[in-house]
Amino acid sequence: PCPLCCPQLEGLCSFLQLSTCPEHLLVCFCSWLLALTPDLSYTSAAILAEHLFLRRVLSLTQPPSRHLMAALASFCSKYSQPFCRVLVAAVLQEPGEGAEQTKLVCELVEECLEPNCVRLVLSQVLEVPLSEKLLPVVQAVLGRQEVLPPDLFDLLVLTLCRQAPAFATSLNYAKLVTAVLTMYQSQVS
After folding, report:
1. Fewest C-beta in 10 Å: which of 7, 51, 101, 105?
2. Where does the Fanconi Anaemia group E protein C-terminal domain lie (predicted)?
3. What's the average pLDDT block by block, 10 residues per block, for the chain (189 residues)?
4. What confidence score (pLDDT) does residue 95 get?
5. What's CA 141's distance to the chain center, in Å?
6. Cβ pair 82, 52 in contact under 8 A
7. What's the sign of the alpha-carbon dihedral 41, 122, 146, 67?
8. Domain presence at residue 2
9. How far apart, in Å, do the first and last CA atoms of the chain sit?
10. How far apart are CA 139 and CA 61, in angstroms?
11. Range of the domain at 116
């Protein structure tokens, strides 16, 4: 994108108040975005993902509305890579429990994201300190039964081994290790 495009898009998003527009309008807006040709650039899609969804998702205290879920699924169907880089990364790094955000990421992993983005989510999880909050996300990734590249699989196993003492009493951790051992038994030595 040209150097002027990003500031102009940022300004337009602010002017249109996209971060606070009614959720039912998000669905219409995302449908319109998907119909654009040519496709949005990575940078433009990332800016839009931030303005359309970031504040809404980080402030969730209950399950997202069907309008918000429809808009998220719609946007992810075409722009999942920038979406993951902006939104999923922010959710993973958010301190605290973030139960609704974690559930949302799990649902997106299970139902919306392409295989390469599922692997991206796993790599993002493994970049931050593993916590009880993140274990369901890893479980959702494994539930997709995607083939993991050897380096990502090795990092997963190494992380699980290093973190074992911290999760000595965690049922979620035990389920996760069991899933890894079951699904990837030929690769675990």
Report:
1. 7
2. 7-188
3. 57 75 90 89 90 91 94 92 91 79 93 92 91 92 90 93 91 92 78
4. 67
5. 11
6. no
7. negative
8. no
9. 46
10. 22
11. 7-184
Residue 68 lies in a domain: yes
Q: How many domains does the chain have?
A: 1
- In angstroms, the CA 94 to CA 145 distance is 27
For 168, counting Cβ atoms within 10 Å of its Cβ (0-12 exposed, 13-18 middle, 19+ buried), the class is exposed
Q: What is the pTM of this model?
A: 0.85
Q: What is the CATH number of the domain that holds 55?
A: 1.25.40.480
Measured between alpha carbons, how far is 87 from 50 in angstroms, rounded to an integer?
7
Tell me the angle at which helices 135-143 and 115-127 cross, rounded to the nearest 10 degrees: 160
Q: Residue 1: inside a domain, yes or no?
A: no
Could you write out the DSSP letters of every residue in 96-134? S--HHHHHHHHHHHHHT--HHHHHHHHHHHHHS---TTT
Q: Is residue 45 assigned to a domain?
A: yes
